[in-house]
Amino acid sequence: MAHVTLLDIEVLRRTKLRPYIEKCLVHRAPDPGFHAVMGHNIDLAEAMFVAWDSLFNKGRIPHPLKEVIRVQLSRMASCSY
Question: Disulfide check for 12: which of 6, 20, 38, 39 has CB 3.0–4.6 Å away?
Answer without folding.
Answer: 39
